Amino acid sequence: MGFPDVTAADHQILVGGRPAFTYFEGGEVQVGTGTAPEGARAVLFPGWEKLTGVLAVSTVLADSAIDRVVILGGLTAVPEMLIDTGDFVRPIWRDGVLTLVTQFARGGVLVPFESASQRPCCQDH
């Protein structure tokens, strides 16, 4: 199912009552419910509703379908590190594993790389 007029993927997608994922193909946002392709964004997945506030990496891994938390640049987050979810988590499928990509924020806390309010890069020039 494609949406040629959509330039960015949204969230809270259900297709036929099933949780879905989004991905780009042929210059369009696609929504799927089967086997996710590499790089697809998981939207609704087991445990997504528990990922609110500040949580330890170990809690994210134990309470949701996310199997890996990485830090931008290729580092793997350790279980004791904290993630401020901002109540918005969009893991991606990487190497067949549901992976949350994070980055460092103030005080060494991690935040998801993808935020709920996207800001276009270089929009002012």
Structural notes for this entry:
Residues 6-12 have low confidence and may be disordered. The protein contains one helix and 13 strands, in the order βββββββαββββββ. 6% of the residues lie in helices and 35% in strands. Strand 12 (97-104) and strand 13 form a beta hairpin. It is globular. With 125 residues, it is mainly β. Strands 8, 9, 11, 12 and 13 form a five-stranded mixed beta sheet that branches. Strands 1-5-4-6 form a four-stranded antiparallel beta sheet, with no helix packed on it. The chain has a two-stranded antiparallel sheet with strand order 2-3.
Structural class: mainly beta
Mean pLDDT: 81
Content of β-strand: 35-45%
Helix content: under 10%
Head-to-tail CA distance between termini? 35 Å
Strand count, sense and closure of the main sheet? 5 strands, mixed
Segments where pLDDT lies below 50 for 5+ residues? 6-12
Number of helices: 1
Number of strands: 13
